[in-house]
Amino acid sequence: MANRLLIFTTFLLFQISYSQEINIYDENYKFLSKIEYEKVLNISDGKLLDGNYYVVDSKKNISIKRFIKGIKTGEWLSFHSLFNGLKLVSTVNYSNGKLQGYFYRTDNHTYNEEGYYKDGEKHGVWTKKTYSDMNIVEIITYKKGKKDGKYSLEEIIEGKTKTIKGKYKHNKKCGLWVIKDEYLTIIKEDGSEEPSIKKEYYRNGILIKK
């Protein structure tokens, strides 16, 4: 909690002095330009990096990175400089150099993705959201980096919805998949309309029945 408070306070100071020359606000964090950071990575494969770093590029986007003797560790945060200030664009966690724990990424406009890593591989429920002319929400379940478990996709265009629901096992479609599409309607005997519903059955990734 104290570490998060330090980061928050530092970013408040950063925004206050946003147009000024960047200064080091806390001795526990070292400032590097993005060019300096990349040079260190190139000459030492990151082995010279040890401690907490603020890495700032020419557009004053800023990243918080942490190393222990060249090994990625802890929570890494990235902020982009937008017209109304700094906005979080990614949260990544590492343990002993591997992705571990919560992951989040966004462009703060049309896209975001979040989920969890375990030992460097996607694990558990991941959610992807896209906002544009078509709003899309995709929910994927992973196990050790492979799709394994429930899956759903929802597309919304001009108020009409298409949904796909099913399951994966070992990265392959399995069992019943249901596709409900309000764009493809069926006209009933009384003249009313209902969404098209299509059912598909998979075994080991192969469609066996519609």
Structural features, described:
By secondary structure, this protein is mainly beta. It has two domains: 1-108; 110-210, no CATH class. 12% of the residues lie in helices and 61% in strands. It has helices at 2-16, 34-44, and strands spanning 29-33, 51-56, 62-68, 71-72, 74-82, 85-95, 98-106, 111-118, 121-122, 124-130, 135-143, 146-157, 160-169, 172-187, 193-203, 206-209. It has a 16-stranded mixed sheet that branches. The radius of gyration is 23 Å and the shape is elongated.
Overall shape: it is elongated
Helices, by number, come to 2
Q: Provide mean pLDDT, rounded.
A: 86
Distance between the termini: 53 Å
Low-confidence stretches: 1-24
Number of domains: 2
Estimated helix fraction: 10-25%
Tell me about the largest β-sheet: 16 strands, mixed
Element-by-element helix/strand order? HEHEEEEEEEEEEEEEEE
Give the total of beta strands. 16
**Cα-atom radius of gyration:** 23 Å
Structural class comes to: mainly beta
The fraction of residues assigned to DSSP E strands is over 45%
Protein name: Antitoxin component YwqK of YwqJK toxin-antitoxin module
Looking at this protein, list some descriptive labels.
mainly beta, Antitoxin component YwqK of YwqJK toxin-antitoxin module, 2 domains, 210 residues, 16-stranded mixed sheet, single chain
In short:
12% of the residues lie in helices and 61% in strands.
Write the SSE topology.
Layout: H1 2-16, E1 29-33, H2 34-44, E2 51-56, E3 62-68, E4 71-72, E5 74-82, E6 85-95, E7 98-106, E8 111-118, E9 121-122, E10 124-130, E11 135-143, E12 146-157, E13 160-169, E14 172-187, E15 193-203, E16 206-209
Parallel strand pairs: 1-2
Antiparallel strand pairs: 2-3, 3-4, 3-5, 5-6, 6-7, 7-8, 8-9, 8-10, 10-11, 11-12, 12-13, 13-14, 14-15, 15-16
